[in-house]
# Entry
Amino acid sequence: MILLRTHSRYSFHRATASLEQLVDAAVADGMSHLALTDYFGMYGVVQFAQLCQRSGVKPIIGMMACVRGGGTGRPGILTLLAKDFLGYKSLCELSTIHQTEKETQGGGIEWERFKQSCQGLVCIACEDGEFRDEADCVALANLFGEDGYLGVGESSSSEWLALGGRSGLAPVWCEPVFHVDPADRELFRLLQAIDQNVRLEGVATADLPTVKGWVGWPRGSRGLAQMDADVSKQAVANTEVVANRCGDCLPDGSPLWPVLSLPEGKSAAEVLRETCETKLQTLYEEVSPFIKARLEAELDLITQHNFEPLFLILGEVIEFVQANNILMGSRGSVANSLVAYCLGISLVDPMKYELLFERFLNPERKSLPDIDLDFESRNGRDAVLGFIRQRYGEHRVALVSTVNTYRTKSAVRETAKAYGMSSAEISKISKQLPSSWRHPDPERRQKSTAEMVVDLATNDHEREVLTMAMRIRGFPSHMGLHPGGIVVSPPEKMTDHCPLFLSPKGFLATQFDFRDVETLGLIKMDVLGIRALTVIEIALEIINENSVRVEGGGKQVGSSEPDRIRPLRPLRVGDIPLEDEATGDLIERGDTLGVFQCESTGSQRTLRQLKARDPWGLALANAFFKPGPATGGQAKNFIRRIRGEEEVSYAHPILEPILSKTAGVLLFQEDVLKICTEVGGLNWTEANSIRKGMSKFEGSRIREMRERFVAGAIAKNDIDEAIAQTLWDQIEAFAGYGFNAGHALSYAIPSFQMAWLKTHYPAEFMTARLRAGGGYSHPSVNVAEARRLGFKVFGPHVNFSERKWKLVDQQAIYCGLGWVKDLRRSTIQTILLERENGLFEDFDDFVRRVPLREKELKHLVWCGALDGLGPNRNSMGEMKVADNQMSLFGATEMVPEIEGESAMDRFAWELEILGMPFSVRPTDFLHEENSMPLAQLHQTSGRVKTVGWRLPSFTGGKGFYVSDGEGLVLAWDKSKRPVRSWEPMVLVGEWKRDRFGGEWLQVERVSNN
# Structure
């Protein structure tokens, strides 16, 4: 007997069996075939097929579909199985209809539409699917002929069996399977409670998968004896008949290229070659034989793999980006490609930095290389997605999905709700759960076993909740979207190759994740939005709006130059040089708060240690900050060598050309690849597997690779065995943690550009950093940094602020009205439109011109956005809203004078409404004399006393940030005593410096005097 109706966790809350459990059970029972038939979707079919094929089981791809009957028009659920690729296409189409068209949610797919999309399918009507009317069954029999069946099983009634005989549907054994482990049966009710957002007792029995039939994996031949012997024998035999009709149906993985726009008579390879050769002349003043040979080698390898369409497709995207001045960059190993540099896909010159092309594409690679493109995240990414949809057609483009699963905290939260626990009880348990942060080193990640979580229970009820929560941990919960993945299909519509669903924001997305779409051969691009580019773009907009000088690389705010003249043309990102003395000084000091990839205290320390000054220095620092060098045991050597404090040496002369750019130390993934292939004689496949890391290798595999490497190093390069062994030890420790040099350089470019902007246009840069949002640090740190640089930062005000942060007169930065809690976007728009008719003269003028809700008015008043328009915040706060008019005891002519609010009131209000205080400094509440301002600490040494408050931001290393409204310093407190954010404090300690120029306050005593 073959199971033709099995449901997995990809039925989302309607089954508990994992794909692995289903396949393992089929193997254990010696089944030749196994079907997967999840409800209305095909999310797991690619993984299911792969698991089956690896296990020697033939997969049958299917789905449950809700269809309006061809006789009665009533909805019922059918089991559909694909016989071939045509059947797979039909399933994709039907599933897409289910997942994208709301009218099918309750009523099912219309019969006429179903008839148009059911080719290549076997159809089984089961009794629990509500297809019980003879007219509907006859319609199925007429439509499917010998491919139409009546599903029978243990619970089949005599009426149902008789219906099959009258309608002409042959019987086939089709009991559903919803779980493999009998212990999972009790999870059904929990999953349904979570899905319906009700308590366990609120789930009706009818909502459970079934209490009839088997629901679990069948054991033995129970149920068969209850049925007529001839019928049961025929039904079981027909499972073999159906299985044999269903063959391979998924795409075979060959690249499914979109249609290219090629000149008549030209091949993709010819167009790519001509384009690159032309672009090469514009990129280099002199195209040396070495550069030309590199280009030829890359083109030959790309053509050998038949990957040239990928580069031409991306080349079209880049042409659109350049024509529309969209800020872009790339990430990953594509920067190692000269072809990519010629096409503008990468902004990194691989020849200048001697980047290894084989890290991107080596002769033994079979799959398409990953090319990730970064775009400005406000409008740039959306514009690029729009271009791709327009270029290839809406029905040929989709975003790539990702499967969101229950993690520890979400599993506990949802289970606790189903068990009726209160919000306070859920919050209490959640706070005790381990963090989900994942350290780059798997051995150092915080691990939480189910037993550890259950042991947190303080009573039997909590223990039951946590036990059940751990049983659903890892279950799929819902579909999400990949941050950048987008697929483009061939000329046919996307649903000929992949089923789709409609994301909450209305985008069509694949039901398969990025691994599965690549497995099928669909062409995936990664189009990502990156906030760093948004910061750069906003800064350039502010600079150009304020008519600053382009010539001479900009000017410092506060310069003696009297006029800020309008440039002949706007300052663009291409005008930012990648070599600049002043910018190099800022980077080398580690003065990089707000700068992409350089914000944490650890990153700043690394910049100082390595004396980074340019993009290459930033790339070295970025790679060095990752675990690789430290894991390889060469961190201190690297620092001393880069600083010129230790002579660079090599274990063998053959290593010098490989490691000369990294001071003789393994730093980049390319170093591993070169050493494995050029020194150890390993092939590219072996070298690449080592580069990815050996944590998954079995011990015997590692020993085998070591022996091959050592033997190859001796035979190929006459290297001493002891040296070869030592070199392997370094590779083994380093592999898996190293950084790709091309990627490091790709990120170093926007980092340097941001550092240049901070150096030459600090006011514009800090405004852009705040306006763009995000970033590594809490906004209050960026506010403190702006003040440290000498700028005034004010809270929001209706007469000066925009919706987002705004720079006024190159000296004052105003917080945006969008930061005011509970202030509607429409209200902000009204304020800004009204202000175009003139500034608000007083409180009465404001409330007459801008209709507000009472809470909106109070929040504007309390946060200071109406300061100066009335006597004080207390007085203005007494006004009430009634019928969109302001009134106080029936009058609107004047605001009564009430005793003004205290500084403590303003502090509390602003902290609550804006997230940080602006008009009050917490240290205003201290009465401490003889303390040194934070801004002066760097001029002293030894023991000091100062005042300030802790900012609510993670530093990325030891200590915390302290501000006093003008200065900003790092404080370390070895006692690790709790210091609350925004609480004023007196700090006594020692001002310390390390040999690299880092400074901090070593706290000895904290008090709230």
